[in-house]
Amino acid sequence: MTSYDIGRPETSWWMPQIEDRGDVILLDGTIRPATWPPPEPLRIAVDGKLFTSADYLEFPDRGAMSFRGMLPVKASFGDRTEVVLRLVGETSGAFARDWDQFHLLRPGVPSDVPLPPSTLTNRAIWMGPRTFDKWGYALKRKYDEAVARFATKPRGEQRLLDWGCGCGRMAKYLARECAYTGIDIDREAIEWCRANIKHATFALQGLEPRTAFAPDSFDAAIGISIFTHLREEDQFAWLKELSRVVAPDGVVAVSVNCATSLRNAGDPPEVVERLKGHGFCDTGVETMLKGVTADDEYYRNIYHTHDYIRQTWSRDFEVLDILPGFVANMQDMVFLRPKK
Ligand SMILES: C[S@@+](CC[C@H](N)C(=O)[O-])C[C@H]1O[C@@H](n2cnc3c(N)ncnc32)[C@H](O)[C@@H]1O
After folding, report:
1. What is the pTM of this model?
2. For residue 327, how far is its CA from the centre of ligand 1 (angstroms)?
3. Spacing of C-alpha 329 from chain mean position
4. Fewer C-beta within 10 Å: the chain N or C terminus?
């Protein structure tokens, strides 16, 4: 019996390699339209204008296309520190969808935080340090825009928990803006953050809740790609803990793999069936953290449906919104407010 709607995938696009080459930035990526063929050819736009110096190749059998092009720094950025990349229809010029914007930081903008080593950036998001850093900036900018609707305090007055902070992708920016605390089960990542990111608190976390924090210690919490890796019982335990440590008027933003991630994974029929039946699917161990914690079975690959989230997470939280294809233009972002 089908009980859960697995939802519809969004058109997604991503760039696994972004290279600064002095005067130009090499952009290299993949576009996966929600339906194939797309109603009109899809193209990258820079600040709303077509990025014409790119080549596009179609792969109908994979329902995807690739792009590769050089973005001239001076002509594109002028004296600005960022440009915004989006996906548009080639003929209509219309944005392909909401929340796919990628804020690209100008090369050479100084930072007091060095790039983490590739062992840590790969472990966090399967990317080398330079591309990891660019996606970090883009995600932080997108998070700022999305969370503004729900935050009840200005950033400067917030106490923020970055649950599963990894090697500081968001910490690099957020630590300057609020009272930032990052926790993770990865000792090496926490040690790197402590050594390299100032004005922030980092703590090694055990696999299970509780954390060391008193009730209502935070005004905001983020968990980027953590519930995408936890067993169902661990998920419920961590939801309870997040709702305990975040204040009643606080906001929690966590990402999950839903229909868009599933499409990117090729819509495996057994996962689709299990999602339809239960709304939650554990596809097995993710080996990326092998040897990092005491339990190699802990870290897994997980899919959710929106229906399941709205039904089961509502024991601890009000579900404020779910934005599809948000993190890496793939994972959905869930915004929550604790129920106390
Ligand atoms: C996919 S990575 C994302 C890292 C970081 N949030 C980012 O976006 O760059 C997931 C992270 O969650 C951490 N993690 C997994 N389970 C956790 C838990 N129960 N508590 C804290 N961190 C956890 C992992 O060690 C890893 O650093």
Report:
1. 0.97
2. 14
3. 8
4. N
